[in-house]
Design a protein that fits this description.
Largest sheet: 3 strands, parallel
Organism: Algoriphagus boritolerans DSM 17298 = JCM 18970
Protein name: STAS domain-containing protein
Number of strands: 5
Shape: elongated
Radius of gyration: 23 Å
Domain STAS: 1-80
Distance between the termini: 68 Å
CATH class: Alpha Beta
Length: 115
């Protein structure tokens, strides 16, 4: 049983899609630790970053330690931006929009004049 998995984005300088991220995390063996090496990655798209953070959260909830290694300032900044936006998505929640029906233009105008 392998307990440590090392993910190296060999030959890549950018990761631009969710599928690209998912393809590196499709392992069947049970692991306790995952090390993700970003040594040559200069660009990480927002969607790829979001997927990476979802995977990180899922693995962490299963007790797997995940570590990001050799982050460039650009990749680190993208991780921080997306991580903050995930919290905002949860805060936004559902917004109720009232649907109004008016029989005629006069009712509509009277309604608008209330404000």
């Amino acid at each position: 049983m392998e307990t440590i998995k090392h993910i190296d984005f060999k030959g890549l300088d950018s990761i631009k899609s969710r599928d690209a991220v998912r393809s590196y995390f499709q392992f069947t063996e049970e692991v306790k630790t995952v090390n993700v090496d970003f040594a040559k990655i200069q660009f990480l798209s927002r969607s790829a970053t979001h997927e990476l953070l979802i995977i990180q959260n899922n693995l962490s909830s299963k007790g797997v330690d995940i570590t990001f290694l050799n982050l460039t300032p650009e990749v680190n900044e993208m991780l921080e931006i997306v991580e903050k936006s995930i919290g905002k998505e949860k805060q936004a929640g559902f917004r109720f929009v009232k649907w109004l029906n008016f029989q005629n233009e006069k009712e509509y105008q009277e309604y608008l004049l209330q404000f």
